[in-house]
Structure formats: structure tokens, C-alpha cells
Amino acid sequence: MGWWIGSPTLGASEKVVWQQLANRTQGGRAVGGRLYLTEARLVFVPNRLDALTGGKRWEVPLSRVRALGRQSPDGGLFSGGLRTRLHVDTDSGTELFVVGKLDEVIEILETALPS
Q: What tens-digit pLDDT sequence spans the chain (115 residues)?
């Protein structure tokens, strides 16, 4: 949604309902970008520089999110592990994100999940 960070590809009737800058732990590094919430999915889009150096887009349908929570710091210097991170459990594994106002983010995302 800008020149530095691209937009998520949306379906015909899909729209972004929330977004926030975030770093996604990818391997041993934190990839900078933006986390988007639509009515149907959670999507991460890396910034253009990180995308050029191997940062990957990521998405998951909200129906496949099993749990949200806090991941305690693990000391990972370049992976965002010096901070408490957003922990997203899905059918296919776990994703970690560094976000500001973590408790508010968890509340917003939990509200969006299907019952």
C-alpha cells in the first residue's frame, strides 16, 4: 500500500480491514514488511529491499489459524528474538512476528477468527 511495501493481492470482494508494520521471522532473520488482515486471510508482505534479498510473502486463511499468543524472547539477534513476538499457530506450522502493541494486535486478530 505504498512504494516501500507492496499491497497484498486481494480477491474480488476482499478488502483489508487492518494492517500494521511487522517483522516476520524467516529462518534466522527478521524480514521487514507489513501484516494485513482481510475478512478471510492474514497476509504478510515484505518490504521491497527484504523481498530482493529473499524475504517471502506469507498468507493463511483465518479458518486455518489454530491459536494466537505471545512468544517469549529466545535471544535470536537477527530473527527478532530479542523481543516478545506474536505467535501464530496454523495447520501448517508456527509463524512469529515482531509487532508494536502486541496485546492489542492479539485482541484484534482473535476477534477476526471464526468461532
A: 578 898 899 999 999 999 999 999 999 999 999 999 999 999 999 999 999 999 999 999 999 999 999 999 998 888 898 999 999 999 999 999 999 999 999 999 999 999 8
How many structural domains is the chain composed of? 1
Tell me how far apart the terminal alpha carbons of the chain are, to the nearest angstrom.
30
Cβ contact 25:35 at 8 Å = no
| In a domain? residue 6 | no
Size (the chain), residues: 115
Q: Is the residue at 42 inside a domain?
A: yes
Domain range for 92 is 16-112
Bridge partners of 45, per DSSP, are: 34
Cross-strand partners of 89:
67, 94
DSSP assignment of 17-85, as one string? Answer: EEEEEEEEEETTEEEEEEEEEESSEEEEEEBHHHHHTT---EEEEGGGEEEEEEE-----TTTTTTS-E
